[in-house]
Write a structure and sequence with these properties.
The chain is of the alpha/beta class. The chain contains 10 helices and 7 strands. Helix 5 links the parallel strand 5 and strand 6. The chain is globular, with a radius of gyration of 18 Å.
Length: 264
């Protein structure tokens, strides 16, 4: 019988690549995202894709219930859905900051609560939480995003301590810079969060210029391989990284090149 994986945030980037990879390697894949129009190719290869709003518990439950009803098991949950609510902390509306936590942290918690009873009954399961090296290393404008990723790390570690007695493990993947649309979307959000005549506009320009000049070697496909490793590793580790450089950045807890933009 095929193993079953639920993956959130599969309309683009790492989540999209992971859905295809897990399917290619024999998993029955269930997943969703808000942008249904960007998941047609997933449906075409037999991935069970549907609309998913990580701030709506009913939407989350519909996905989990469908997987359990049709397959009777859930082997893997990949908590990938997330985005970057970038902008200066002085100016980001608190409603936007709360939404950042709703999607990046509380949404992951909601779907995890729903899959755990099935995993407990099975006596096994793997929860893969997609964090970031930004849980430790930070840049200006990413305050709320970094806060959610730091929280995901701690939440995952506590969860792992609680559920491993049931044969379930909770692990973290910490990607670094990746060649996807994520950063451009985050910086678009930063500009939307600026107040008129904001004193932080030069900082946004500086960060935008910095990231546009940086070449990221990691691709969505290469990160999908890390997701798969974290989901299937016979001896799971607490943390998974794409490269030694990403791991070193976390160990150092800062990246001097990125922090230098604070001097604008």
């Amino acid at each position: 019988m095929s193993k079953v994986a639920i993956i959130t945030g599969i309309s683009s980037g790492m989540g999209h690549a992971a859905a295809l990879l897990f399917k290619e390697r024999g998993f029955e894949v269930y997943g969703g995202a808000r942008r249904v129009d960007r998941m047609q190719d997933l449906l075409d290869v037999g991935i069970h894709a549907q609309e998913l709003d990580m701030t709506d518990k009913i939407s989350i439950r519909q996905l989990v219930d469908r997987a359990v009803k049709e397959q009777g098991q859930i082997d893997v949950l990949v908590n990938n859905a997330g985005y970057g609510e970038y902008g200066p902390l002085e100016e980001i509306p608190i409603e936007n900051a709360k939404k950042q936590f709703d999607v990046n942290l509380f949404g992951a918690d909601q779907i995890t609560q729903l899959v755990l009873p099935t995993m407990r009954q099975q006596g096994y399961g793997r929860i893969v939480n997609i964090s970031s090296i930004g849980a430790e290393a930070y840049t200006p404008l990413g305050g709320w995003y970094h806060a959610t990723k730091a929280a995901i790390n701690m939440w995952s570690d506590v969860l792992d301590a609680e559920v491993r007695r049931f044969g379930i493990r909770s692990v973290v993947v910490q990607p670094g810079g990746t060649n996807t649309e994520w950063m451009s979307v985050s910086l678009d959000n930063a500009r939307k969060n600026l107040e008129p005549d904001s004193p932080y506009e030069p900082l946004v320009d500086k960060v935008d210029s910095l990231f546009s000049k940086m070449g990221f070697n990691a691709t969505a496909q290469s990160l999908a391989e890390v997701f798969y490793k974290a989901a299937t590793d016979p001896k799971p580790k607490r943390r998974y990284f794409h490269s030694l450089a990403d791991h070193a950045t976390v160990l150092a807890a800062f990246d001097a090149k990125l922090l230098s933009v604070c001097n604008v």
